[in-house]
Design brief:
Bound molecules: ligand PMT
Helix content: 25-40%
Oligomer: single chain
Structural class: alpha/beta
CATH topology: Rossmann fold
Distance between the termini: 26 Å
Number of helices: 5
Order of helices and strands: EEEHEEHEEEHEHEEEH
Largest sheet: 8 strands, mixed
CATH superfamily: CoaB-like
Length: about 220
Amino acid sequence: SRSSDLVGLDIVITAGPTQEAIDPVRYISNHSSGKMGFAIARAFAQRGANVTLISGPVNLPTPSKVNRINVLSAQQMWQIALESAVKNHIFIACAAVADYRVADIAEQKIKKSTNEMQLTLVKNPDIVSDVGHLTENRPFTVGFAAETQQVEQYAQDKLLRKKLDMICANDVSNGQVFGAEQNALKLFWQNGSEQLPETSKQQLAQQLVNKIVERYHAKEHE
Ligand code: PMT
């Protein structure tokens, strides 16, 4: 039945934003609400898959039968994600991970002083790229690309550069994707693409799950 056709399939999903501390009271983050990633987790779990959801700080209830692990920073998410990736069949990176973190987190609250101040940022590890480049126990790897311009081109660049099996191009130029109830995606894989038109994130997640499962089985039988 539909409620159990994915029993035995192990899925790990990252979702939400990360928080990069500046000092004990401040951080750098973004507008991801976690809705898209949580919808994917729910859609897989509804079909009997074993789902691990690695979530940044969001205000969402955990979907039924999903194993949720909360993290704050990109480095924390990287550690849990790499440990989990090698134990799962499919890895899906829906999180909006901060590309940079503060070089030296202040131990005390930074006091207001000069008119200008500078923060030095250093690059965070790229979680989905590190999973894509695994040489042992590499899962089927799906990334997202949130872009405001040249969406399809940048998404296809990321598919290759991060060594992914599939990428979900997400046009966020209208300012109505982060936190919204609806979304649209264009999927790309090595020899194909498919448009998933705008609908609720829950419906979109169900269609995405169908496509991921199809491509996962197609790759297994290559
Ligand atoms: O959470 P919502 O409010 O529902 O919004 C959904 C969403 C817009 C966040 C989601 O649909 C989405 O597009 N997620 C990816 C956001 C993103 O950061 O995209 P990116 O193009 O910057 O990153 C490309 C890919 O690399 C993504 O799979 C990202 O998870 C991954 N990445 C990026 C940087 C990093 N250090 N590690 C990563 O794994």
